[in-house]
Amino acid sequence: MRIDLHTHSSVSDGTDAPAALVRAAARAGLDVIALCDHDTFDGLDEARAEGLRIGLDVRRGIEISAELGGGSVHLLGYGCRADSAALAEELARIRAGRAGRIPAMLARLAALGMPVTPSDLAPFVGDSPSVGRPHVADAMVALGYVTDRREAFDHWLADGGPAFVDRYNVGVGQAINLVHAAGGAAVIAHPWGRGSRNRLTPVVLADLAAGYGLDGIEVDHPDHDPSARAQLRALADSAGLMATGSSDHHGLGKVGNDLGCETTEPAVLAALSARILQRGGQT
Ligand code: AMP
Ligand code: FE
Ligand code: FE
Ligand code: ZN
Questions:
Q1: For residue range 173-192, what is the model confidence (pLDDT) as tens digits?
Q2: Backbone φ/ψ region at 200: left (φ over 0), alpha (ψ -120 to 50), beta
Q3: Ligand 1: residues within 6 Å at CB?
Q4: What's the pTM?
């Protein structure tokens, strides 16, 4: 059984519509995926309907934009009930922060000699309720300022970059609490990926496990080298955290994150599902 628990659709910053993503996952030989769009559940109904139709198990997921010590941390929530008002309110606040920072980012780009108008941006946002820097990057590609998303991030949009504008994020401890209150299981995404390694130290991760009941960490992720994986796996063992593995697929938007390039052990998925059932979540 091949399981990929971290994928994105065009409902956030992936490039495949939810149903197309599910068909691509089947072609990639996967049996189970979780759709983890940024700060929205809006793609799940379409993805799960397509999963039922073609026989692929699509799990409920979300990737919440959280923060720790003033820096960004991504929290995956699995099995959260859709009817949790507290979680829905927080996600709406995060999405409002996403939309609210866009004019300032476009102003920065204009000042840098790379004007992007709201109508340049609109086709890339599409009907996503969760606008992000990758959509801005896509518009910059279309306007010929950069060749791909990576170049847009590396030169302009990355945290602290010349066109970067910060936005509201929920504290990671509060985000874990909200996931649990919605019946879900909380897993830190790519803890030692871009930039977060200095904040998500082994001590901090162990504290999130002991203090907030963090359920797991994403160990096998394209951003982690073999030594990071070995250290994170040892940490997961010692802190009683589940260790997941996933692609973080964004369609054409991210190179090196092909569906199923990293996978989660069936026993880990079973443990995750058991915890969700125990908390009254939705598998
Ligand atoms: P935002 O959601 O606006 O904070 O933008 C962050 C998103 O940008 C993340 O979800 C990543 O998927 C994406 N991202 C970050 N760095 C890169 C990169 N170098 N190339 C492509 N996508 C990136
Ligand atoms: Fe993303
Ligand atoms: Fe992420
Ligand atoms: Zn992701």
A1: 999 999 999 999 999 999 99
A2: beta
A3: 13, 38, 132-134, 149-150, 153, 250, 254
A4: 0.97
